[in-house]
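Re: the pair you flagged

First of the two:
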Amino acid sequence: MAGRSNLDEIGIFTNPDRIRILNLLIKKPYTITEIEKDLNINRGTLKHHLKILHENKLIKREKQSGKSGSPVLIKKNFQTIESIIKKFPKQQSFLIGLIKSQLDIK
């Protein structure tokens, strides 16, 4: 996330769909189609969010070995959501509240 301000980096977490994507990827890698179906996000919007998450090194893409045209797996590039939050020590409370509200956690 080099070259970006803390405000820009925190902005990554202001979109509920991006939080939902990261939360989903904690469980296992998914294809774009699986994410699209599980989260009910249209493909164009999903690709936009995946691009932002990939540019910020929060996810990685991995081609499945085997046949040509195999789907690309989207994998998390972090251990936990908490490990992401720890990168922002001054904004931890704010981010925790923001993420909880995005995921509707009390």
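Second of the two:
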Amino acid sequence: MGLDFEQYTEFYIGSLEQEYNTSKYGFKVAESENTTLAGLGAHRITYTLDESGKYGKITDIWTLKDDKVYAVTFISDEERYPLFLNTSEKMIDSFQIT
């Protein structure tokens, strides 16, 4: 792969912006922050997309270990996102890399 964590994070966020940052998708970043995944330094980005009047909310979390990317994505329509957030966070917190 050849990218360190910071380089990969910049690449991934840049790719999202390039792919979705058009009026067609209504891409908006709600939060972008460093966090942990499986006890490793990680990054979390939460964003919304609007495609044809349907709003979706997406959280991507990723980390790198041994030159491999490990990622978890939680996707929901924006209205139901809060209903499933607690459950998704418990699942993400249980994620292990062995």
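The helical segments are 5-20, 81-93.

-B.
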